[in-house]
Amino acid sequence: MPKAIHFISIGGSAMHNLALALQQQGFTITGSDDEIYDPSRTRLQQHSLLPATAGWFPEKIHTGLDAVIIGMHARRDNPELVRAQELGLSIYSYPEFLYQQCQQKQRVVIAGSHGKTTITAMILHSLAFHNRAFDYLVGEQIEGFETMAKLTPEAPVIIIEGDEYASSPIDPRPKFLHYQPHIALINGIAWDHVNIYPSWESYVDQFELLAEAMPKAGILIFDESDNMLDVIGQKERTDITKIPYQAHLSEVRNGQTYLITKQGTKIPVSFFGEHNMKNVTGAMTVCDRIGITEDQFYAAIQTFKPVALRLQKIAETSVPNSVNRISFHDFAHSPAKVEASTEAVKHQYPNQRLLAIVELHTVSSLSKTFLDEYKGTVDAADQVVVYFNADTQAYLNSASPIRPEDVINAFGHTNLKVFTELEALKEYVLAQVSTVDILLFMSSGVFDGLDIKAISEKLIQAS
């Protein structure tokens, strides 16, 4: 078993967590990166793994290393990578190395375009609630877990959030193909990274590869309401078990969602929306296959708290005999996520006036060829604001810049305004807080530093 491991791009989200997990198992860990931000920076510093100097140093690469793990942030011509290749060292992407460490475990991989983190978090919460031994790798920090990765010799099962993007600069294969899962869940396919997969077909291909690569006697769990997934799930594979699932039966009463069990029992939960009803069924189906019964799952899910920035409440007021005023912040940025989050909030609070605020800031969302994918995604909202930084979009798509009228035409909402300057966005939203009941901020970015909490407090004060 390797004892000395060097991480190229140790500051990455998954990379630094894997480094910490391996250090806890007694490995000697070193690493390099040219830029490291929090929370990675603080965590690495707390465990004496933060590189003394930013940058790449070929002299850190030597024959005494048992392995080198390279992250996606590094380039093919990275001087440390070049040196490792010259020395003939064992070089792995992090999914490759993770597989090496968990070959003797039951491997469960959660895949799909959206909802992976939530489903994984629900499974981890249920296992922890019932004191089961398990390892994991999850994409974001979740409540109740100190790190995003855990590797131990004794755990019989590992839950892995697997994505469809390239494994490393020298390995273009999707990360999830390395894990060779005994159980794989695919929760939906929505093309949202045109800069990585230039066509819908090339994107779908990655999930077909995952389904085809399932080992004999494997279990493929999939959302049968997703048309493309239903096609993939029904393909001829007589040597694996295929389990389709649908949204969990539920009801909403006075802003509270209840899961309805087969026996008719109503289980209160802190999450809502059709997409989360699918997520919870997917998580329960996986749990059933790894030894958590339905009753045990329902007992655990009542204390599950949504992952940060997944319809996260920023502020809320409850005035007797009055309509609640609430502000949400959500990670939604791709068309499918924007639509799911907008519809979820409107369904939860059908009689309240909803203002949806969307930031376009990814390469895909600022692409004129991709913009039409947002058609109809915010129809559930009463008012819509779309913001994008004109300088950022010019830098990302200088050859074909989008204009505010392009956004209006693409979204197709009858009450939509577009802003390209932060101050104008702030002034407009603040002007609306006395006329709307719910604010829904949606972005995988930070709205160029907009103080969402302060605006949310103004909404509450206006009640």
Architecture blueprint of SSEs:
Blueprint: E1 4-8, H1 13-24, E2 28-32, H2 40-46, E3 67-70, H3 79-87, E4 91-93, H4 94-101, E5 106-111, H5 116-129, E6 135-137, E7 149-150, E8 157-161, E9 166-168, E10 171-174, E11 183-186, H6 200-212, E12 219-223, H7 227-233, E13 241-245, E14 250-253, E15 256-260, E16 266-269, H8 274-289, H9 294-301, E17 312-317, E18 325-330, H10 335-348, E19 354-359, E20 383-387, H11 390-396, H12 404-411, E21 416-419, H13 422-432, E22 438-442, H14 452-461
Parallel strand pairs: 1-2, 1-3, 3-4, 5-8, 5-11, 6-8, 11-12, 12-13, 18-22, 19-20, 19-22, 20-21
Antiparallel strand pairs: 6-7, 9-10, 14-15, 15-16, 17-18
Helix pairs in contact: 5-8, 5-9
How would you describe this protein?
With 463 residues, this protein is an alpha/beta fold. It contains 14 helices and 22 strands. The protein is globular, with a radius of gyration of 23 Å. The termini are far apart. A hairpin with a 5-residue loop joins β15 (256-260) and β16. A seven-stranded mixed beta sheet has the order 7-6-8-5-11-12-13, with helices on both faces. A six-stranded mixed beta sheet has the order 17-18-22-19-20-21, sandwiched between helices. A four-stranded parallel beta sheet has the order 2-1-3-4, sandwiched between helices. 46% of the residues are buried.
Query: Largest sheet, order of strands side by side?
Result: 7-6-8-5-11-12-13
Distance between the termini: 62 Å
Low-confidence stretches: none
Q: What's the gyration radius in Å?
A: 23 Å
How many strands, which pairing sense, and closed or not: the largest β-sheet?
A: 7 strands, mixed
Query: What would the average pLDDT be, to the nearest integer?
Result: 92
